[in-house]
Amino acid sequence: MNPRADGARGVQEFFAAVRSGDRKAFEAAVDRPALHADLRGQLADVGRQYGLEVEGGASEFSLDRLITPQAFVLVDAKTGQPLTGPPSLAQIANSLKISDRGHVCLMTTTTRSCVLRFTRHGGVWRLTGMPARQTPIALPHYPRDRT
Known about the structure:
This protein is of the alpha+beta class. The protein has one domain. Helix content is 37%, strand content 20%. The protein contains 5 helices and 6 strands. A hairpin with a 2-residue loop joins strand 2 (96-100) and strand 3.
């Protein structure tokens, strides 16, 4: 198994679910418990920066409101404009940082920081980490591939 190619296909499937608005496919592509933990930690860190400690952290309802297809905005790194079509495998593969065979991170081209983390469980790649605030995800400009 090539983690870059396999991970890129998994990330592409996630973005296809985002783009289509298919709720069932979107839910299959996210790991809500992992995302809740990730987002809860980020929000607690922000609160601590301002001297706030919130007992129990953010509610499940508020966290679920962050995990929607609308939270993911893909833009062309060159123009900053929203992508007009789904990202190609080349765009995704060239933006992945491979941690190991079961963990990949989608790096934004503009800041070279990890914006989305995916973990492979039972042969399926699922989103396990994302920013707590909506962040445009800048992908490199590549000609469309044939996928």
